[in-house]
Design goal:
The strands form three sheets. Strands 1-10-14-12-11-15 form a six-stranded antiparallel beta barrel. By secondary structure, it is of the alpha+beta class. α3 crosses α6 and α4 runs antiparallel to α6. The chain has two domains: 121 residues, Efflux pump adaptor protein, beta barrel domain (Elongation Factor Tu (Ef-tu), domain 3), CATH 2.40.30; 185 residues, Helix Hairpins (Orthogonal Bundle). The relative contact order is 0.17. The protein is elongated, with a radius of gyration of 54 Å. The protein contains eight helices and 15 strands. The two termini are 66 Å apart. It is a single-pass membrane protein. One of its GO terms (cellular component) is membrane. It is found in: Membrane.
Length: 437
């Protein structure tokens, strides 16, 4: 047994010597080509590692929205959908009624009253007819009764025209009395002239009486005429004074009547304006509580409610309205605070939407547009909100156009450092050298 093992060892040593002899006699060209090949491979690896990029990314969640996000229509009260005015994907305008939750009021009556009030809100004095009296207005009923009564009084006040007719009559009477006053004034001037002539006649008769040319009886007659003229003048002056006082009293009464007219009209108009504002406020409160109204133009999208008589709870989102105008798409990414300092405006973002697998649809390119200055707490961790702009919209790297779905979620890979493989290999060495200095 020992001899066999010894023989085997001798054979191995013999072969090793043969192998060493072959190696020692290796042709030089094989060695040269081997070194060249290895060197070439090393150079190629170095060049390749310096050319090929290995970007450093930070992954975050992203939600797609727009510059004019969709408006969620939230119910403010619970009950059945009493009336539904739209269909799914129907185009709507700002202020349109989408649905009404059950309530005591009649929607048509409320809309009629609202339109009536808005028409005459700024100029209630132009109302010439009453609105419908019998209406079912729910919580607005009591206030509307006061408004209807006040409006009835105002229209009656204008139609009867008591104060206006009275003012016109007083003005006519003043005009007539002023004319009469002028007539008496002219008569006074005539009496004055007549009195002057009578006085001259009396003076002449007095001189002639002293000379004996006129009898005493004739002088007395002339004197009586003069005294009568004086009495006529006094009567004229008294009449003018009375007429003047009457005119002043009439004008005072006219002012009082005009004031009463203006005060009455102003009071009624003020009451109407006040009641109009109160009613519109009450209608607005009714709309907030029971009416689902779109605040923006766009297309309405049904979520959990689509037919009448469905029960809806306060706080539920009944519908969503997607804006119809051109919107700029924006992604809102939640960036973890870890390594967030590496993210800067202008960096590229690769977005993969959950609805569309990236291996089939590709990815969407984006650019960091803005980074929030303070972090927000989401669940238990703090995050920065990063706005991501989509220069090419929802066109993917595969050339596919993805449809816009509001609040679409996905994954955002923010490319912070686009380093080559060589730079990434040298980074640890650079760190060691820097820290050792």
């Amino acid at each position: 047994m020992k001899e066999a093992e010894k023989k085997k060892v001798d054979e191995i040593e013999l072969r090793s010597e043969d192998f060493q002899e072959v190696l020692s006699d290796m042709p030089p060209w094989i060695l040269r080509w081997g070194i060249t090949t290895v060197a070439t491979i090393v150079v190629i690896l170095i060049i390749g590692s310096s050319i090929f990029k290995y970007p450093d990314t930070i992954t975050s969640t992203i939600t797609l929205t727009s510059s004019k996000p969709a408006a969620n229509i939230v119910a403010k009260s619970s009950g059945k959908l009493q009336e539904l005015y739209v269909e799914d994907n129907q185009t709507v305008q700002t202020g349109d009624y989408l649905a009404v939750i059950e309530n005591p009021a009649n929607t048509a009556d409320i809309q009629y009253l609202k339109k009536f009030l808005q028409t005459y809100k700024s100029c209630p004095d132009s109302i010439d007819s009453l609105p419908m009296k019998e209406m079912n207005l729910g919580s607005c009923q009591s206030l509307y009764s006061s408004y209807y009564l006040t409006l009835s009084q105002y229209i009656q006040f204008k139609q009867i025209g008591y104060y206006q007719d009275k003012i016109d009559m007083m003005k006519n009477r003043i005009v007539r009395n002023e004319k009469h006053y002028q007539d008496v004034l002219r008569q006074k001037e005539l009496v004055k002239k007549q009195l002057a002539l009578t006085y001259k006649q009396y003076q002449r008769d007095s001189i002639l009486h002293q000379k004996g040319a006129v009898s005493g009886k004739d002088l007395e007659t002339t004197n009586n005429l003069y005294i009568g003229g004086q009495l006529s003048m006094e009567n004229m002056l008294s009449t003018l004074e009375n007429l003047s006082m009457q005119l002043a009293q009439m004008k005072e009464e006219l002012l009082d009547t005009e004031y009463q007219y203006i005060d009455k009209e102003s009071t009624l108009i003020t009451q109407l304006k006040s009641l109009t504002i109160q009613l519109l406020t009450e209608i607005q409160a009714w709309e907030i509580n029971y009416v689902l109204i779109t605040p923006i133009p766009g297309k309405v999208t049904f979520t959990n409610y689509w037919i009448e008589n469905q029960n809806i709870l306060s706080g539920d989102i009944a519908f969503s309205v997607i804006p119809s105008s051109n919107n700029k798409l924006i992604g809102k990414a939640l960036l973890p605070t870890e390594r967030s300092g590496k993210v800067k405006v202008g960096q590229k973002v690769n977005i993969k939407f959950s609805n569309y697998p990236d291996n089939e649809f590709g990815i969407v390119r984006g650019i960091v547009r803005n980074i929030s200055l303070i972090s927000v707490k989401v669940e238990t961790k703090n995050h920065y909100v990063v706005e991501v702009e989509l220069p090419e919209g929802l066109t993917t790297t595969y050339g596919k156009k993805l449809p816009f779905v509001s609040e679409m979620e996905g994954q955002a890979d923010i490319i912070t450092d686009d380093l080559s493989l060589l730079e990434r290999i040298l980074l640890p060495i650079k760190k060691i050298l820097t820290e050792s200095l």
